[in-house]
Amino acid sequence: AARPFEQVPGERRGGWLNLYRFWQEGGLHNVHNIMARKFQRFGPIYREKLGVYESINIISPRDAATLFRSEGMMPERFSVPPWVAYRDYRNKPYGVLLKKGEAWRSDRLTLNKEVLSPQVVEGFVPLLSEVGEDFVRRARAQVQKSGRERWTADFSHELFRFALESVCHVLYGERLGLLQDFVDPEAQRFIDAVTLMFHTTSPMLYLPPALLRGLNTRTWRDHVHAWDAIFTQADKCIQNVYRDLRLQRKSSREYMGILSSLLLQDKLPLDDIKASVTEMMAGGVDTTSVTLQWAMFELARSPGTQEQLRAEVLAAKHKVAGDRVKMLKTTPLLKAAIKETLRLHPVAVTLQRYTVQEVVLQDYRIPPKTLVQVGLYAMGRDPEVFPKPEQFSPERWLLPGSKHFKGLSFGFGPRQCLGRRIAELEMQLFLMHILENFKIETKRAVEVGTKFDLILLPDKPIYLTLRPL
Ligand code: HEM
Ligand code: 2DC
């Protein structure tokens, strides 16, 4: 028989003392490294108590498989307390990100049809490709302007704008024009608000929502202002589409974006549509832009791999006369490169689920309603799971039988990332266009580490050079 829950290794000190220690040791921006160290110290399963939250942490794909296979129809992850606290404080409805149970499931099924289903997703390709082309056009103009046949910069702000432009094009069917020289200050404010919202979440991550709502600290106030700005801006975009639709300003023959489809379908109440569309708009900025920054950095450091990808993309383009939908079907290495980027640089440090029944992990019996976290960052760098983990090699994803519960960057199952297909297409098309037009270069010696700011980010600016082919 499996061992009892109480015997899972880990620290047994009180949660508040742990939280204090964690703060003192600079753990706030270092969650990923602390976890990796704990797996080294305790082995592939350990328990932890921070503040009021107790969790079991696992690292092996086999345990992840056990966890996700038992998750049921309405999986729940850790609800980020400051996000819940904000909505309760302002009386805002939850979207799919924070909903639970049947309410989550019915919203999510309706949204899946408009955001994840293969037929609809194919229609995103021209919209996202157009934004990628505009990025290339802008990059060429910057090369011209420099007078040095190249463009060297920290691309993070460019990529934030690219990402917001992309997600808004599929959500609202409209262009914001963020890849032009003049950027709408409201759009820029939205981008800054999302970054601030993430940044102010992490210090409050392990405090209960009820406590947060009454707080009057700088962090809480900044957090509230950040969400206020996010909701206000999203609301303006949503109202615009809503108005155009009622005035029938749009011809109903062309694809008008996710929001219009949801409104016309009339299956979800307006408030629920708004809540989830706002989450998608906010969720679509830092996630893909940071991943693209890492991808370009890795490709710049591996010129051989970059050449292989370029050859694949150019061959695909030649074969299907530039049809992007078809190209995406013959570029496995490009897709693998994105998986490989997310292995080394995941957006989410962990995946979490509350168990709904007893499960056995590493021969310990884990009771129902336990918070279990899969250490995604630690797994991606574990030599037992990925041989030579420090090497960026997309080909590892093309080996047969090598992927079992290892490619978990977007989560798993019915609760996986809602924006997954948008994110994947946006990133694939972006890299396609870049590889067709530029060589990506960087100074060889520069090492860049990772910082936890709720999502994982580069810990310093990354300077890259785009050089026209
Ligand atoms: C949830 C990763 C981009 C919207 C998640 C989760 C992960 C994730 C790991 C939790 C999944 C789970 O618990 O199994 C990523 C990564 C991205 C990305 C790596 C890009 C590189 C996006 C984009 C959007 C988005 C572009 C919006 C269009 C969401 C939403 C949820 C979610 C709404 C919550 C879904 C639910 O609870 O039903 N994402 N994401 N994400 N993501 Fe993403
Ligand atoms: C953060 O301990 C660390 O995709 C916590 O697009 C556990 C945790 C819970 C939920 C995770 C979060 C971590 C990281 C950011 C994630 C989030 C679920 C969705 C969110 C992974 C790992 C993200 C970035 C969404 C955000 C949408 C939001 C802006 C409306």
Q: Any overview of this molecule?
A:
The chain is built from 19 helices and eleven strands. It is of the alpha+beta class. It has a four-stranded mixed beta sheet, with helices on both faces. Strands 3-11-8 form a three-stranded antiparallel beta sheet. It has a two-stranded antiparallel sheet with strand order 5-6. Strand 9 (450-453) and strand 10 (455-458) form a beta hairpin. Bound molecules: protoporphyrin IX containing FE and (3alpha,8alpha,22R)-cholest-5-ene-3,20,22-triol. (3alpha,8alpha,22R)-cholest-5-ene-3,20,22-triol binds at residues 77-78, 80, 97, 205, 279, 282-283, 287, 347-350, 352, 417, 454-455.
Keywords:
469 residues, alpha+beta, four-stranded mixed sheet, three-stranded antiparallel sheet, 11 strands, 10% strand, globular, binds protoporphyrin IX containing FE, binds (3alpha,8alpha,22R)-cholest-5-ene-3,20,22-triol
Concise description?
The protein has 469 residues and is of the alpha+beta class. It is built from 19 helices and eleven strands.
The 3D shape can be described as globular
List the bound ligands.
protoporphyrin IX containing FE, (3alpha,8alpha,22R)-cholest-5-ene-3,20,22-triol
Amount of helix: 40-55%
Unreliable spans? none
